[in-house]
Write a structure and sequence with these properties.
The structure is a homotetramer of 288-residue chains. Chain A has 288 residues and is α/β, with parallel strands linked by helices. The first copy, chain A, is 51% helix and 12% strand. Chain A has 14 helices and nine strands. In chain A, the strands form two sheets. Chain A has a six-stranded parallel beta sheet with strand order 3-2-1-4-5-6, sandwiched between helices. A three-stranded mixed beta sheet of chain A has the order 7-8-9. The N and C termini of chain A lie far apart (54 Å).
């Protein structure tokens, strides 16, 4: 039976780890804060990332950003030190293509394989196993990891070599980021033109060029806008990384302008709120 | 029985005029090219806009832009010359709030009333009478015109005084314009990151931040992208008018950047194509 | 002796015409408002542009924009109707390269030659004959017109075929437009950072990356900022034409952003003021 | 006699330290790389920043950025640990207003005073003592430090409390950054319009809206563009900090667009070159 390790047991990682256990795989877990590891009943707890990786055939990570990924991977007690020939490292985190390629190189030095498989979906689909995975890496490696990928997701979409899953995830986030900034500016324009706020929002949320997702987020904001599902400062960061990865701002002026809206919202103090607060910043306030 | 005139019998105006006839109202029609007037069976044909307005209680216009509206309204044979006390002028065209207010002033000089009621929807809902109307003007005037408004639409939404229907229509168009520019830039970024084109489009068209409407337009482009439902140069113009109306570009950087994408696409020769061609310009080409 | 016609006798055209007379050339003049023609003592007054062109070997124009140029050129009484084989049309106006090329085609149909020779310099150098000319057209044609060019200018710089003088003039204006917008934004930032206004202006006007010209214009603004040497709305227009001519906004984001600053200033009501008022709009007010 | 310490003996710091020595002040020096300290003949060498500060009445720093400043200031062996009541810390580095205020707080905890006095000028004026200082801090403190300030500079301009010198320095750099980006875009437009490169550069460098400084830098680029006087990535960083400090990109669209030009140039691999290479990136190449 394939032995699995899971590192990073936050809001997303914990339910994903539980699904792997429920699918019958022996599981070793590690988390910076060990209490979250102890909460995964039925799993073995490792003291270090290295120990977790050493005990597994497939090592999964779900971390907050490239820096956290690197911190878990490197050093004497790091994940990479526990890798060896034939093992597979699956990274579910949202990072840059460059961070994915760096991790893959570290794995290769140990004879191990790496795939970037960032997830589309949030806590509920992580619990239900209905996430979708945007995968980068070698097809045969993904096939060898199929049991684990299937345990946590409804579908794995393969977009190319290492880093292409991360690239697809950033482009995916772009559409969220720009759509919200555009809607915020539409509401701001409507205000400056003297249009009635609630009726205007009602109309705009009904038209076919406005995605249904915006309606859910407007309800969320009207109900107070807490807690953050995805922090505004992270959206700004993803848009910036994407603009740079694409060759710079002049090539994608709309994306860059949206990044600017998030930058202003963050400078105004909204960085730790949900990214949907860019709507309130640009076109609010909203009340019931 | 209320007598109606309809001026401007293009792709939208003709089916709207027919619905008014079908609802039992006596109808006088006028069109710059008289052949299109003769095609409305059962209607009386006027030789001039003035003659059409003189013969009616409610005068409807559906024209291409502010200049066409002014050309039909002004002069010795113009619509305004045929207005008199108690008549109502309903303008279904998409124009600026300023153009609506100018028309209303001309009507008022004759003792007549004016409402701007631009339409949401295209040829099929115009034929079926399921358009939605975005109305500006006095409530009591709209009530007096209810029979006609109901004959051509499923719903009339009232957004304020004269010009506010036109304002709402421009903000409405913004969401189409920006969404398409953003999607085009997303495809361009995906290309520059080496992502597989068809698979990337497939994924992006499936996510909740992408409106279903984009899918229809991608099919339209894959099938050749003809004929234009809404010209790219008109989208550029609407975005520019809207940016200016809102106080200038720095206030709405995303909208202004989108305007820039349409400007570049128009400069490259795509001005008379459907606005969806901004997708091909930025992130194409697309094939089946 | 070469016979000369001069059409367009505004603030720049009148002193230029006088210099041609002073150099000993027989001169026929025309102006839309004939009083300005009568003010050129020693010149023959033509009743129409056609008559002026018919009476001359070299026909000069100095008009406000492409539309004015076309209005003087076209029609039964237009300048072009008075051209014939061997004549030369020198256009000193600031227009687009496309407008210059269109004029050249009209001249060619009559067997005449055309050069665009927009001027660098304002009223004083026009009076002193120390303007510089940015020339587009054939070298031999410019040589044949050398006597006239020398009468009005200190130097003629040749930048290529027809339209390249106009292109150079627009790029020339860019540096004025962007420098002023940048300085205005610098003053705005200084304000928002709480820096003392007068001392900050004093320092910035002293550093080597700030052109001396800004100092003169700051004095002009402090003295009331009247009259306009170059209207703000014209600067906006030149920047827009230039951005379009260069392929669109994404290729020249700084120029496009500067255009946006002038657009906002114009929307706020400053269009007919001198373009230096963009400084007051962005970073003012200034007092003595 | 006032005892002085100087920390940071790079291209600027070394000649400034020598001028203080030449003015007769007893001097203790420290540098991360001690060889550069040994090169200051006549100075006492300290082993740690703390030891340097402990040995002086006035402590000077000239470091590369906020991170370097903080690294030298903090910790057991840091500069702050060597401060005590009555001492003055003069920071000549270019940092953010926030970094200056943070340093001032650390000094105050020890009873010491702090002034931010970033310099305008480069190596030659540093050697000649003709720098200009842009000062933030209390007037009386600056007066007490007058002997030292006079030893290294021709003039000290006072712009307000702590941080206002740093603010003025960032605004100062803005005018360099935007002017170069604008000139680069002008050259790019000239290229796309088919204007002759060398002649166009010659003309633009002669007009009154182009600062003379650009001419020097064009000569520098034509001669190979090495070594970097001010790195391109630092210009990008300063513009970004400034845009954020001013409330975000929409408030200063021209500055933000210029930042974008530097961002693209840096992404293309020019980050460590002199910032003037933005000209080559946008509008080059240049040859003799």
């Amino acid at each position: 039976m394939t032995r699995v390790a899971f590192l990073g047991l936050g809001a997303m990682g914990a339910p994903m780890a539980r699904r792997i256990l429920a699918a019958g795989f022996p599981l070793t877990v590690w988390n910076r804060n060990p209490e979250r590891a102890r909460a995964i009943e039925g799993a073995t707890i490792a003291r270090t990332p290295r120990q977790a990786a050493a005990a597994a055939d497939i090592v999964c990570t779900m971390l907050s950003d490239p820096a956290a990924l690197q911190a878990v991977a490197d050093g004497e007690d790091g994940l990479v030190a526990g890798l060896s020939s034939g093992k597979i490292w699956l990274d579910f985190s949202t990072v840059t293509p460059a961070a994915s390629r760096r991790a893959a190189e570290r794995a290769r030095e140990k004879g191990a394989d790496f795939c970037d498989v960032p997830v589309a979906g949030s806590v509920k689909p992580a619990t239900d196993g209905t996430l979708k995975l945007l995968a980068g890496g070698d097809g045969p490696v993904l096939s060898r990891a199929k049991g684990i990928l299937d345990a946590v997701s409804a579908e794995t979409l393969h977009f190319g070599g290492v880093g292409q899953g991360s690239a697809m995830k950033l482009v995916n986030n772009l559409m969220y980021g720009v759509t919200f900034a555009a809607f915020g500016e539409a509401l701001a324009l409507a205000q400056s033109l003297g249009l009635p706020a609630e009726r205007t929002r009602g109309w705009l949320l009904s038209i076919p060029s406005v995605p249904p997702y915006l309606r859910d987020k407007m309800d969320f904001l009207a109900a107070g806008g807490e807690p953050a599902a995805f922090q505004l400062s992270l959206m700004e960061k993803d848009l910036r990384l994407l603009v740079e990865a694409g060759g710079g701002p002049a090539r994608v002026p709309v994306v860059d302008a949206a990044r600017g809206d998030y930058e202003r919202a963050r400078v105004s103090g909204l960085g730790e709120k949900d990214f949907a607060h860019v709507l309130s910043f640009l076109g609010g306030p909203f009340s019931k």
